[in-house]
């Protein structure tokens, strides 16, 4: 049997319910995937384009694994602009390195 204490330390118990961070969400994450339990977001709100968290319109960022305000995203993308810029930079760098390796 796999033991999962939820990362909450000695005070967490299997009977304590882990809930989604979205305002008024009643989803019980105790049986959810480990990723959703770890980040305290239900599957629905992890993919939703607009989620109200702490009374603010936000979206869950797949790169950061946390909620950001909508203005930090481009269009309907699921990664915030800052993390997406870093991702794109790494891709550009690796493709230019591959181009130099192929020209030798």
TrEMBL record:
InterPro entries: SBP-like, SBP_dom, SBP_sf
Keywords of this entry: DNA-binding, Metal-binding, Nucleus, Transcription, Transcription regulation, Zinc, Zinc-finger
GO cellular component: nucleus
Residue span(s) of domain SBP-type: 17-94
Region Disordered: start-end pairs: 83-104
Biased composition (Basic residues): 83-93
Species annotation: Nepenthes gracilis (Slender pitcher plant)
Gene Ontology molecular function, alphabetical: DNA binding; zinc ion binding
UniProt key word Glycosyltransferase: no
Protein name listed in UniProt: SBP-type domain-containing protein
One Pfam family here: SBP
Intracellular or extracellular location(s): Nucleus
Source organism, top-level taxon: Eukaryota
Main localization (coarse): nucleus
UniProt keyword Nucleus, yes or no: yes
């Amino acid at each position: 049997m796999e033991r999962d204490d939820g990362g909450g330390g000695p005070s967490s118990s299997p009977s304590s319910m882990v809930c989604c961070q979205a305002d008024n969400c009643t989803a019980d994450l105790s049986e959810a995937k480990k990723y959703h339990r770890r980040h305290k977001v239900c599957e629905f709100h992890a993919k939703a384009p607009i989620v109200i968290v702490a009374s603010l319109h936000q979206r869950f960022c797949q790169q950061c694994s946390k909620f950001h305000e909508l203005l930090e995203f481009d269009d309907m993308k699921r990664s915030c602009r800052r993390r997406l810029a870093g991702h794109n930079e790494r891709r550009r760098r690796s493709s230019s390195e591959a181009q130099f390796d192929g020209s030798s």
